[in-house]
């Protein structure tokens, strides 16, 4: 069955806010715990490409860029199905969807998605020396985007107020755990594995430059016209209106666009509309402590 046609099936299922469970010290969804053994034993293939991010750090943007690079700039290949069908989300268990099963059934070469922190990545990805692309976003904008995603996605845990959510975010009491641990763990792993580490802010600053990095990492040569086509296809404005990328194929009972759109603003610095001065100073302090000595720094404005 074409997964792009399952919207009606999902609408028949009552939607409930999720609760989180602890998996090896990281808060994740209960259904993920139920598939943890087969997920941990997942058999990666040498030509797998894994896209990894902390939630709401530019995941969908990077996925679309990668598919456009892989297809030689052919938007029709990206239009064949919604992005969550084209690139399986390996730890996702969602009613009649299973990212793990979809990934296992997918022919090679596969592009897969995960939000898992580095220590929870199935070992076969390291054993097979798979290429991994990671994108990180500054913690302030990431927190704001994640808050609004909790508001609109009716299966995410109840976020509470902005103040409550920010406390949970800084404490790592949100799905996929601590942002600080996530971005630092993957940053340190890049010195030992085939990992391209990108920054959301760099992508906003010069998208063509960052796409060239992706293409080079994937051993794909891009002509100037094809590069320009990929840049145009993956601008925020075009992504926001692209039904194969903007999650509008998900029923509003699950993701409610009346609350917030899945692709909301796509800017750097929107945190200034949400953070108080004391909240900003507090996150800066925690960030300095948690990332000390790593060499990892973030820009919170351009």
From TrEMBL:
This chain belongs to which protein, by name? Uncharacterized protein
Phylogenetic classification of the source organism: Eukaryota, Metazoa, Chordata, Craniata, Vertebrata
